[in-house]
Amino acid sequence: MISFSLKGKTALVTGANAGIGQAIAVAMGEAGAHVICAGRSNCDDTVARIASAETLTLDFANPMAARDVFKGRDVSILVNNAGIIRRNDSVDFTEADWDAVMDVNLKALFFTCQAFAKARLAAGAGGAIVNIASLLSFQGGIRVPSYTASKHGVAGLTKILANEWAARGINVNAIAPGYIATNNTQALRNDADRNAAILERIPAGRWGDPEDIAGTAVFLASPAAKYVHGAVFNVDGGWLAR
To answer: What integer pLDDT is reported at residue 206 of this predicted model?
Structure first.
């Protein structure tokens, strides 16, 4: 029997205070998981929406912030959602903005995956990692050089970690959200010309909601995806098909 249930499992979701992370955390709770809602900002609102949940403060401005998080915790699902973005023309982009984005979006993601895998392998147990990539894992975008580089890196790390850990019981996959209505895309939605151009290309005819990403995350964390390794799922309203 195919099971999408997460009952009896514990999931850690980073960046769970709002947006896509919050939607994923709530959906995993609805699927039966105990959810650790991690973020640098307060996650109390997310926890209040989940039957079994707790908060954890993690600030990935320190890429090693999760190094010891999995010790003494039976966490079998990791969702790496935390991320930041900086916008500027590439000729004007600063080293500080480059480093800040790469530290949170790529370096922290890798070392959090590493810490999770070390704990699962030491326990002789499997697990599931779901990384949040982006359409900019495949495209160049405009005025977001470090974000584009980091999200290309997320897709690559997803594949190499799947290669190394699939036979050891750890599924590693990623979701590439399309244009989702979150804080990160507020500037685009406020720009009338960019907003119109984006909507014109999306076959679904609308911006995505954070909840549109959540079902795919639950699937990838569940036994139903036990033979899915190294995949990057586009959840984009048909954007890349255009």
So the answer is: 96
